[in-house]
Amino acid sequence: MGFFYDDPNYVLNYFIMAWYIIKIAITALIIVIVSEISKRLPLLGSLIASLPLISVLGMIWIFQETKDAQKLIAHAEGTFWYVLPSLPMFLVMPWMMKKGISFYLSLGCGILLTVILYLVMTKLLARLGMNL
Length: 132
What we know:
Layout: H1 9-40, H2 42-50, H3 53-66, H4 69-83, H5 89-98, H6 103-127
Helix pairs in contact: 1-2, 3-4, 5-6
């Protein structure tokens, strides 16, 4: 019986795992950079966070890995429609915190609002013939 690397799929599996690690590292790096910049320059951090960096990377990776334009189109359209119901959270959280409500309760309410708005958006779009 040979070593585990005698398996012809070993090299392929190695590259697949390496690719996943690279994707995770890039994504984590973006989050850390935004967080560190936000500590020093909150408005610049907000600007960077508002850029669709993760969505753009996701689209690049989807296209690179699948070459499937229809998957990319569905992803881009879905992202657009799901961003809209997430936006009110960024108004509700600061409003609640200005009223003296704790960060975690404000965050929880913002997330709950987003989930409710996602459900409303999904049902509304289904009525219009769009199933996300």
